[in-house]
């Protein structure tokens, strides 16, 4: 088991490699407690000096907003090997403000140092999963793919996209995020391919030639020409192979508008290409997505709505010490009645 940092002297002696490539914490650094708040190290050192680090406590974690509970797997991995008992909501459960989502019983010294990373895992994962659930509900039966990796630090991109899949997203573009969830990553090609190739149709033909049959023939149409014109050019050139066109019109040109979707749908249908789907991405929100779906969009790529979702604040309270109900002012001492909790460790 990884040795945790225990004293202020160890903190003072800690050095970091000035040549490390990335500033994100490694798995070992998280397990050691190096991402915790310094006051937990102080607390542990004081309690140990007074012979109180083995005090038996009951701690409860609750969230402060409605949402979807997620992040339990990572939370349990953080606590793995500790001599404690843990109860939690099943992953994917709905949670409401002040609902207890996790209860830990055991010696405070076994887990107290890890409060900050434990809460951080749950807060972020619940926030991302909740946002994905909301946007999926807005999309209904239309597929949603998470495109959020570019909006967050790469160290947490897989965590975010895995949470998005758990929340209801149908696909994720981040390779590691999808693989960690047991899925294959989803996505086609960026504007860069079209720009380098110099023509949308030529880029589509090259994509079709090089990519395996399993890769969707879904091509961007807003790089060089009018989107409706490019959609027809593509459909004709691909000779039945085109599965869909993607609209990602930038805000500088007004973004993807309902009127544009309606025009493209009508022109494709009139030309006999009713099988070609319309995939929309770029700045999608709960308000915009239903409007674009009603206009004829078939599927969506959602980025910042999920990736920029605020964490759902989590709080850990001690509710018993040595079997005696206790709590700070403003909180009710003793275990909270939480019949939905199940033992997980």
User: Which strand-content bin applies to the residues?
Assistant: 15-25%
Q: Could you say what the CATH architecture of the largest domain is?
A: Alpha-Beta Barrel
DSSP helix fraction? 25-40%
**Secondary-structure element order, as H and E?**
HHHEEHEEEHHEHEHHHEHEHEHEHEEE
Overall strand count = 14
In the residues, how many domains can be counted?
A: 2
Distance between the termini: 17 Å
CATH topology type of the largest domain: TIM Barrel
How many helices? The count is 14
How would you describe the shape? elongated
What about the largest sheet? 6 strands, antiparallel
Structural class: alpha/beta
CATH superfamily of the largest domain: Aldolase class I
Taking Cα atoms only, what radius of gyration do you get, to the nearest Å? 25 Å
Uncertain spans, ≥5 residues at pLDDT below 50? Answer: none
Summarize the structure in words.
With 345 residues, this protein is of the alpha/beta class. It has two domains: 8-126 and 310-343, Aldehyde Oxidoreductase, domain 3; 129-307, Aldolase class I (TIM Barrel, Alpha-Beta Barrel). The chain is built from 14 helices and 14 strands. The protein has helices at residues 8-13, 27-32, 38-49, 72-79, 108-111, 115-139, 157-167, 175-180, 191-197, 200-210, 227-238, 258-270, 288-295, 304-307, and strands at residues 56-63, 67-68, 84-88, 94-95, 100-107, 144-146, 171-172, 218-220, 244-247, 277-281, 299-302, 314-321, 324-325, 342-343. The strands form three sheets. It has a six-stranded antiparallel β-sheet with strand order 13-12-1-5-3-14. The protein has a six-stranded parallel β-sheet with strand order 7-6-11-10-9-8. α13 (288-295) links the parallel β10 (277-281) and β11 (299-302). α12 packs parallel to α13. The longest helix has 25 residues, at 115-139.
